[in-house]
């Protein structure tokens, strides 16, 4: 005995072809999705690397030490 499929085979193949032909990532579909998924993490990364670099520079030259 075989189980009946949830969807007809033709409809399933049609859906597979549709989703395989989409070249954009699914999380970058909307016009503002690039801002939330690319620009904001990039800005956080750049600012944190700047602050870490400034802290290492200040520690190495002794700038801002309390006497």
Automatic annotation (TrEMBL):
Main location: mitochondrion
InterPro entries attached to this UniProt entry: COX7a
Pfam families: COX7a
Highest taxon, organism lineage: Eukaryota
Subcellular location, record wording: Mitochondrion inner membrane
GO cellular component, one term: mitochondrial inner membrane
Keywords: Membrane, Mitochondrion, Mitochondrion inner membrane, Transmembrane, Transmembrane helix
Regions that span the bilayer: 38-57
Protein name as annotated: Uncharacterized protein LOC120265831
């Amino acid at each position: 005995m075989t189980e009946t499929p949830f969807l007809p085979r033709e409809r399933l193949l049609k859906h597979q072809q549709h989703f395989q032909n989409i070249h954009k990532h699914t999380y970058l579909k909307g016009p503002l999705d690039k801002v939330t998924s690319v620009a904001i993490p990039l800005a956080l990364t750049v600012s944190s690397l700047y602050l870490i670099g400034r802290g290492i520079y200040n520690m190495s030259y002794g700038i801002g030490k309390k006497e």
